[in-house]
Write a structure and sequence with these properties.
The protein is mostly helical. It has 10 helices and no strands. Helix 5 packs antiparallel against helix 8. It binds fe (ii) ion (FE2) (2 copies). Pfam families: AOX. This is Ubiquinol oxidase.
């Protein structure tokens, strides 16, 4: 390697380190780090205030700022948080399982089983740690599927039957699960590094799987969601048995799922588990449509749950 190459390599590694350092070693919240660029607000980020309240305050600050600039036409003092609140359907069947029959099902089931055991071994009974990392992965399939269907709709000048919206709703819902859990647990630097690596692998692997076989990709997600339901059932059982101490529900969860003010983590886990069961059914349904030789757009998507 000549001197020019060595200098270029050193500069590249310094640049990469500068990019990665805040992601891997930051101990402040994302919202806190944004506060300096969002305006002159003096929000005490190190207090026990929930992210929901912080976001609502930022939304108000932004609204006032936009009003000052003359760009906000709304007369009312809109304090809406930047998410769509809804009430989860907790009556959904938590035990439903799609029996693997075809080769497509068996491959998908095998992949999920192979991923399940090392994950359970790694986290054991650390339910909140498990949930944080699980949700960083769970929010990927909906976004990838929605993005690819979006691109297909543009290319073919055709409707998607509501499936783009349904999958993007799923991705957003999963991201809100993550936003809820990071209110009570901040991942350590090695967990952030793990998330960084897993996202790089999983996003690309799922993207390729969806391109190659959407019916396989949806079946994999269906089985991943079944495992998510099982994991949250274990989490809930440990909270109910007192193995794990219950705690007040994060403010963001109370706002997002329209929960009573005195809700606890048990209530939060119940609504999140119901969401996962809904994702399970949606993805198995999508795979069933395609396994039957049809396109998703031929069957209206179950939208509006969230
Ligand atoms: Fe989730
Ligand atoms: Fe899910």
């Amino acid at each position: 390697m000549n001197r020019n190459h060595a200098v270029a390599a050193t500069k590249m590694s310094q640049l990469l380190l500068m990019q990665l350092r805040p992601r891997l070693f930051s101990t402040t919240s994302h919202f806190a780090s944004r506060s300096s660029i969002m305006g002159p607000s003096k929000i005490p980020m190190d207090t026990t205030i929930g992210t929901a309240r912080v976001l609502a305050m930022h939304a108000r600050n932004w609204s006032a700022h936009a009003s000052d600039l003359g760009t906000n036409k709304k007369e009312d003092n809109d304090q809406k948080a930047p998410w769509e609140a809804y009430e989860a359907d907790t009556s959904i069947d938590m035990k439903k399982h799609h029996k693997p029959v075809t080769w497509n099902d068996k491959i998908a089931f095998g992949i999920v089983q192979a991923l399940k055991y090392p994950t359970h071994f790694y986290f054991q009974k650390k339910h909140i740690h498990h949930a944080v990392l699980l949700e960083t992965v769970a929010a990927v399939p909906g976004m990838v599927g929605g993005m690819l269907l979006h691109a297909k709709s543009l290319r073919r000048f055709e409707q998607s039957g509501g499936w783009i919206k349904a999958l993007l709703e799923e991705a957003e819902n999963e991201r809100m699960h993550l936003m809820t859990f990071i209110d009570v647990y901040r991942p350590k630097w090695h967990e952030r590094a793990l998330v960084f690596a897993v996202q790089g692998v999983f996003f690309n692997a799922y993207f390729l799987a969806y391109l190659a076989s959407p019916k396989l990709a949806h079946r994999i997600t269906g089985y991943l969601e079944e495992e998510a339901v099982n994991s949250y059932t274990e989490f809930l059982n440990d909270l109910e048995k007192g193995v794990m101490e219950d705690m007040p529900a994060p403010a963001i969860a109370i706002d997002y799922w329209c929960l009573p003010q005195n809700s606890t983590m048990k209530d939060v886990v119940r609504v999140i588990r119901a969401d996962e069961a809904h994702h399970r059914d949606l993805n198995h349904y999508a795979s069933d449509i395609q396994c039957g030789g049809h396109e998703l757009k031929e069957y209206p998507a179950p939208i509006g749950y969230h």
